[in-house]
Amino acid sequence: MIQEPEAYDPEGSAEHEPEATRRDADVTESARANRGWWDRNADEYQTDHGTFLGDDRFVWGPEGLDEVEAELLGPPEDLKGRDVLEIGAGAAQCARWLAAQGARPVALDLSHRQLQHALRIGGSFPLVCADAGALPFADGSFDLACSAYGALPFIADPRLVLREVRRVLRPGGRFVFSVTHPIRWAFPDEPGPEGLTVSASYFDRTPYVEQDERGRAVYVEHHRTIGDRVRDIAASGFRLVDLVEPEWPAWNTSEWGGWSPLRGNLLPGTAIFVCGRD
């Protein structure tokens, strides 16, 4: 078990800052880039956001919407004894909260270093390092699945993940996932006034890519419109139960990337999709 985080850079120290661009990036390139990015940046991410996320809270996004009040997976008392898969778990804060409710969570992430932070914090549930597009579980293994900003924004074909999640869910199961609200792709990723002016087409699905000096992607994020997300959900065999757009609460004075009180009072920053498996 890791006692203290250490510097971790499996690909060596970068000599040049990555170049931000918009270009195509397929499933393989996206997975390779994002596995490396999260391994390299897990320490900084947990340092910067660990206090906000807590060790055992279930927060759906930068607005701070907590599962305690949202109950998108169901009332907390109904979680006891349920098998729950958390996808893109990071340091497994959500899984730790689920375990405290009596659920039986499994925390899955593509990044080995993120899961090392989960080990550092502790917990008695399984940690699995795997790609969400090829889940290493038998059909019908789980009652519920959840993902708070995990996996879905970073893959080229979200239906791969949705179909895999449906496969491992039992009939009557539920999958709830949160992503960057699609409208935010039309605005600069800035928390201040400069982030309030449209700078790109909402309908431009070209991925956001950061690439090194050789043109290799080191970070990839994929854009889907609201309609795209709904069609992906339906085509993967799920039923859309609810779409939640959290409002920015007065108590939250934090900035997180392009999320801020200024923008949050004017624009939705997160979209949460509640999906049922019949």
Keywords:
single chain, 278 residues, alpha/beta, seven-stranded mixed sheet, three-stranded antiparallel sheet, 7 helices, 10 strands, 27% helix, globular, disordered N terminus
Care to describe what's here?
The structure is a single chain. 27% of the residues lie in helices and 21% in strands. Helix 1 packs parallel to helix 4. The protein is built from seven helices and ten strands. It starts with 18 loop residues before the first strand and ends with a strand. The longest helix is centred in the N-terminal third of the chain and has 27 residues, at 27-53. The strands form two sheets. Strands 4-3-2-5-6-10-9 form a seven-stranded mixed sheet, sandwiched between helices. The chain has a three-stranded antiparallel sheet with strand order 1-7-8. The protein is an alpha/beta fold and 278 residues long. Strand 7 and strand 8 (217-221) form a beta hairpin.
Give a short overview:
With about 280 residues, the protein is α/β, with parallel strands linked by helices. The chain has helices at about 25-55, 65-70, 95-100, 110-120, 160-170, 225-235, 260-265, and strands at about 20, 85, 105-110, 125-130, 140-150, 170-180, 210, 215-220, 240-245, 270-275.
Unreliable spans: 1-14
Radius of gyration: 18 Å
State the strand order across the main sheet.
4-3-2-5-6-10-9
What separation lies between the terminal Cα atoms?
Answer: 40 Å
Give the strand content: 15-25%
Identify the overall geometry.
globular
Number of helices: 7
Percent range for helical residues?
25-40%
Helix and strand run? EHHEHEHEEHEEEHEHE
Please give the number of β-strands. 10
Largest beta sheet, briefly?
7 strands, mixed
The averaged pLDDT comes out at 94
SSE class: alpha/beta
